[in-house]
Amino acid sequence: MGNDSRNGRTSPANAAHVAGDQDLQFGGSGYVRYVRDPFITDPTTDTDQRIYVITYGTSGSNPSVIVGRLPTGAVDPAFGNLALPFVDDSLRAVMDVQGLIFNNDGKITCVGITDVTTESGRYFYPAAVRIETSGTPAAIDEGFGNKGRMIYEVDLSKDAASCGVDLSHPDDSRAPHIQAVSHGFGSIRRTVQSSGDILFCCRLFNSNTQVESYHLVKIGENGDPVTSFGTNGVLTIPAGSPERGLQWLDYGIDSNRSITLAGRGQVSNATEGVLARYTSDGKLDSGFGNSGEQIIKIEGANVYIKQVTVLDDGEAILLLAVDYLQSQGRMEFAVMKLDKNGKEDASFNGGEALLLSEMGGISDAFVFMELDNQERIIVAGQDAVSEQHARMTRIMPDGTLDSEFGINGSRTYDNLNGFRKLGIQRGTDILAVAQDPNTLPTEVLLFRFFGEAGS
What we know:
Elements: E1 3-4, E2 9-10, E3 39-41, E4 51-55, E5 65-69, E6 81-83, E7 94-102, E8 107-118, E9 121-132, E10 139-140, E11 149-151, H1 158-161, E12 165-166, E13 178-179, E14 189-192, E15 198-206, E16 211-219, E17 234-236, E18 247-253, E19 259-267, E20 270-278, E21 293-296, E22 301-310, E23 316-324, E24 331-338, E25 354-361, E26 368-371, E27 377-382, E28 389-395, E29 410-425, E30 429-436, E31 443-449
Parallel strand pairs: 7-14
Antiparallel strand pairs: 1-2, 3-4, 4-5, 5-6, 7-8, 8-9, 9-10, 9-11, 12-16, 13-15, 15-16, 16-17, 18-19, 19-20, 20-21, 22-23, 23-24, 24-25, 26-27, 27-28, 28-29, 29-30, 30-31
InterPro entries: Delta_60_rpt (IPR013431)
Pfam families: DUF5122 (PF17164)
Organism: Pseudomonas graminis
C-alpha cells in the first residue's frame, strides 16, 4: 500500500512518511474514539504530552467532565475522568470550562462560566475551579476558593448592562436575567502561569433585556477576586454604540498578562474585524492600534476575526472569515499577522492577509487554527471544491505556504469529512477531530498527522 499522497494515509507496512500523513499507529487503529468535545494538549511540555478533553455538563446527573488522555490517546489512569463538582452546592451550579491555566506545579485553574437555575430564572456568572494533578487520580484542590471552587458576582445593574450589545432595544421594565451564549469563545484558552493574579474573559447574555455583555475577571492565586479590579474583581467591557454590534469571539493573553480580544463589529452596513487590548489593570492599551483598538478590513468583503493566537511578545495571528460581496454567501478564510503594537506585520505576506483559496464553504463552522513550536500556522477545515472533504494548510512564519506540506502547503483528506477540532502534539504533530464516513455508523474520531517527514 505504501504512502498514498491522495488522502494522506500511511500503511503500517511502510513507516516512511511525509508531513501531513495520517499516523495509522495512533490509538492502535489510527484513531481514538469518544473525543467529540473540545480538547487541548498540555502546554508545559512537548514530550509525554497529556491530552485534556473537556465535556460541558448540563446538570448534577450530567456534570462537566475533564478526561486526561495519554499521548497515545488512551485514557490516562493517573488523571482519569474528573467530574467537576458543582461550583456552588446549594445553587447546583454546573461549570462550563472555557480556559485552563497551568502553573508548572501540577495545578490547573479552570475558568469559564457557571449555570445557576433558581425559581426566579436561569443565571450565568464567571466561575473558576482548581485541579490538583500530582496525585492519582486528579482531584479538586480544596485550598483554592471555597473548597476548590468559586463564583464571581457580576454587577447586573442597568448601567452595567448598558455596556453590552443591545440586540433588540426592548423596554427596560423587566429585571435582568443573565443567560449564557454558546459555550465560550473560538478556542479553549491554554496558558502557563507560574504565579500571580489570573485574568480571563467571559461572555454573558441577558435574555430579558437582550443584552450581550463581556466581562474581564481578575482573581488571586487563592481564587479570591482582586477587589481593586473593576467591581469586586469583575470589569464590564464597554461595547460602544448599539449600532456597532460589537461581539468578541476569541481572546489571547501575552507574557505581560495583557488580554487581546478579537471579534467583529458593524459599520455602514458592513462587517469588520475588531481587536482591543486591555492591560492587566483593565485599561485599554494606548500603545496598541488606535488607542487600544485595531480594525481589520478587506475591500469588497465583510470580514471578522474567528480566532486569535497571541504570542508572548504581543504579536497576534488572526484567522479571518471573509464573505466577499459577490460570493453569494460562500465563506472564505484568510490568515493575517499583527505586530505587538497592533499594526500589520510586513514580515508576514507583506503585511497583507493571506487568502486560503482552497479552503471554504457555506459557513465558518469547520475551520480552526493552531501554531506549532516553530510558529508555523496550521489551518484545518473543509475543502473549498467538495465543500465536504477535510483539508489542512500549513503556513510558514513569513506567510509563505509550506512547500514540505502537501502541494503548495495544503492537503486534502478525501477519506475524512471536514475537520472539527485541532491541536498540536509533540511540538509539530497535528491532532484533529473529523468525521470518518467509512465507519458504520459514521463516527467523529480523533486523528493524528505527522508534522515532519520521517521513517
